[in-house]
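Reviewer 2 asked us to include a model.

Predict the structure of this chain.
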Amino acid sequence: MKSRFLGCLLSTMFISCSGTHTNSPEQENANTILPEEKEEVTVMTLTKGDFHHELVSNGKIVAKESAELCFRTSEVIAKIWVKNGTYIRKGQKLAELDMFNLNNILAQRKNSLAQATLEMQDVLIGQGYAIDNISAIPEDIVELARIKSGYHQAKVQYEAALHDVEQATLIAPFDGIVANLFEKPYNTSKSGSAFCRIVGCSVMDVDFTVLESELPLITLGDKVEVMPYTNVQETLTGYISEINPLVSANGMVRVKATINNGQKLFEGMNVRVSVKRVVPNQFVVPKTAIVLRSGKQVLFTLQDSIAMWNYVQTGLENMTEYTIMNTEGNELKEGMIVITTGNVNLAHESIVKTD
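Predicted model (structure tokens):
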């Protein structure tokens, strides 16, 4: 009886020991059991090519040409020929002041200049010089005569009055659209205060920021796509024209891009900015090809219907793709077959089938 019990015990121990098996390190990390059924997957051939990097930010539209126009003198506004939203051409008249006082002052200054000129000539004649050939008179003598006669002061006052008359009519400095016009005719203009603003529409810029760490990823001339939040279906293109060489306290860098054909944009409009850049000679895979195993990124390659486990590290990314920077002990090469979908439940050396 005793020997029979010992025999059974030894048999049980032998069976238990013979059923013990070891897993590869990858299988232990995965903690998965190979499925009995073949997983259906899709694949692609791994090759090096161009990666279309995309950096997304928020920005504001800024007109490349913008100017606030104002009257130099406080006079009654006689005429206003435009209103907010009016498209104007360079040299077009916008508004005009009442000219009576300005023309009267100009006439007085002109008369004062004429009197000062006569007095200057009298001084020169008194010193024995002929005024019909002033260029032959020594310059220091002429300058002294101008000072004694008040010629310089009279000329300055006349030129200032003439300038006021010329500036009494606001002229468009460039093609654009009128904005911030709130004045009305027959009211007194406010000297030095903005009468209106002219916003150029031919070329628009977008001002946005990028992180300090993202600065190496952009260069002057990189392509950008701009989408107004008012119409997300419309996409405008442009290029990076300025990178401000200062980093803010928050670690941000201001960047400006010039937009092509931005007539439909308004200054101050909020937009979504996508910076496009082509990075050559990269291993590029869809994001679906990368799965996580024990906190590490894994890419499965296919060898004779067997899924092979590869630790990888991703680099750049856009909306749909990654670049593969390096691997841990597994050298990826061009021509390898990469599993792109159906890899969520795969383990090392799983048997799979392709579409």
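The first helix runs from residue 2 to 18. The two ends are 62 Å apart (CA to CA). We have added this to the supplementary material.
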